[in-house]
Amino acid sequence: MTTTTGTDRIEQTVELRAPVARVWRALTTTSEFGTWFRARLDGEFVEGATLRGHITYPGYEHLRIEMRIERIEPQTRFAFRWHPYAVDPAADYSDEPMTLVEFLLEPTQAGARLTVIESGFDRLPLARRAEAFRMNEGGWTEQMQNIARHVSQS
């Protein structure tokens, strides 16, 4: 896995031993996405749609998640916007800018290369920016491991 970061962008890549079609299904089917990402989402991923749901990661079950689907390019790119590290249930994040999360998928000899890029942190309020970046950087490291396990088991 590779990691490239600055102050505005997190980028991580993982090589997966699974076909592109299998990884694509894990990324873009809400039930499968929810399994490895640990979230229960209402609805399906459709460009322009806003999905809401709950985090199912132990200790974070009280948190809600909201994702606005930006782009679906079959077996190549899946992108959404969200409020990063929105963990204070009393806070209203709706006026804050959202970051863009992009999953880029390409075939390899052994299976697939998956890159996740989250950008737009420099637009967040200064009081939240560094912590959101730090937590999401660690979070994406864990999520890339989660999807790798998920696609290798099924």
Question: Explain this structure to me?
Answer:
With 154 residues, the chain is an alpha+beta fold. It has one domain (2-33, 71-153): 2-Layer Sandwich (Alpha-D-Glucose-1,6-Bisphosphate, Chain A, domain 4), CATH 3.30.530.20. It is built from 3 helices and 8 strands. It has helices spanning 20-28, 30-37, 126-153, and strands at residues 2-5, 9-16, 39-42, 50-55, 64-73, 77-82, 99-107, 112-119. It has an 8-stranded antiparallel β-sheet with strand order 1-2-8-7-6-5-4-3. A hairpin with a 3-residue loop joins β1 and β2. α1 packs across α2. The longest helix is centred in the C-terminal third of the chain and has 28 residues, at 126-153. The chain starts with a strand and ends with a helix. The model has no long low-confidence stretch (mean pLDDT 94).
Which helices and strands, and how do they pair?
Layout: E1 2-5, E2 9-16, H1 20-28, H2 30-37, E3 39-42, E4 50-55, E5 64-73, E6 77-82, E7 99-107, E8 112-119, H3 126-153
Helix pairs in contact: 1-2
